[in-house]
Amino acid sequence: MAHQPLQPGLYIVATPIGNLGDITMRAAETLARCDGVACEDTRVTGKLMKHLGLSKPLWRYDDHAGEKDRARLVASMHEKAVALVSDAGTPLVSDPGYRLVRDARAAGVPVTTLPGACAAIAGLTLSGLPNDRFLFAGFLPNKDKARRAALESVAGAQATAIFYETAPRLTKSLAAIGEVLPGREVAVAREVTKLHEECRTGSAEDLAEHYAAHPPKGEIVLMIAPAGDEPPGDHDVDALLRAALETAKASQAAAQVSKATGQDRKALYARALELRR
Ligand code: SAM
C-alpha cells in the first residue's frame, strides 16, 4: 500500500531497546511515510527497516558531523520529512541529535517527537527504587577519579540516580559506589526487554561480589537509591545508641534511636543494654 508522504520537517523517532515488538504504531507509520532516515549506524537501522518491510534512504548522522553536513541536512528538512533515529531507544538520550534539533528549531523547521522506549525509564520502572524524583546522569566515566567525582555529585540528591553502564565496567563501578556511597541500595537492570532481562537489587558491595562471580553480558542501567533511604547498618545503630546513652537511660536511648531509624525498639533496647555493659 502506498503511504501518504509526511509534511516536511524533523521527526524524532524512538525505536525499541531490544524487543522489536516495542516499536510504536506511530513510529512505524512515520518511518513508512518519511522521505529518509538520519541514523547513527545504517546497518543497525537497516535491520529495523527490513523488519518493518521498509526501504528508505538512510543517512548516517551523529553530532560530530561537520557544521556544513548538518546545515545541509537541516536545509533539506524544508522540503523533506526526515526521521531521526538512534541505534536503540530515544534519540538524544546519551545519543546523537541534540545539535540537529537545536539547529532545526533555529532554522524554523517543524520538529515533532515520537516518544517510545528509553532504557533509563524502563530500568527505573523495574528497579523498585523510588521513582517520584530521578536524576539521569548518562554514562559513568571510565577513569577512577572522574567516576568518583560523578558519584559524589549525586551523593546528596533526593532522587534515584540513573546511569548507563557497560558490562565490562559494571563490577568496578559497583565497587566505587560501595566506597563513595556505602549502604545505598543499588539496582542493576540488564538486557531490559530482551530474552535474558534481569533486575537485581542490593548493596553495591553484594552486587559487586555477585557480578565478579558471574561476569555480566549485555546492556545495563545502574541505579542508586536517594540519600537517606539506606537502612542504617549495625555500626550506625551502635553509634546512635552510644551517643544517646551518654544522656539517657537504655530504654529512652532505644526509643530515640527507634524513632530516628524505624528499627524495632525492643531489639534496640537489648542492644543498648549490651553496649552499656
Ligand atoms: N538512547 C538510548 C535510550 O533511550 O535508551 C540509550 C543509548 S546509550 C548509547 C546505550 C546505553 O543504554 C547502553 O550502554 C545501556 O547502558 C543502556 N541500554 C540500552 N538498551 C538497554 C537494554 N535493553 N537494557 C539495559 N540497558 C540498556
Describe the 3D structure.
- The chain is α/β, with parallel strands linked by helices and 277 residues long.
- It folds into three domains: 106 residues, Tetrapyrrole methylase, N-terminal domain (Cobalt-precorrin-4 Transmethylase, domain 1); 106 residues, Methyltransferase, Cobalt-precorrin-4 Transmethylase, Domain 2; 43 residues.
- Helices cover 42% and strands 18% of the residues.
- The chain is built from eleven helices and ten strands.
- The strands form two sheets. Strands 3-2-4-1-5 form a five-stranded parallel beta sheet.
- The longest helix is centred in the C-terminal third of the chain and has 12 residues.
- The protein is elongated, with a radius of gyration of 25 Å.
- The relative contact order is 0.11.
- S-adenosylmethionine binds next to α5, β7, β8 and β10.
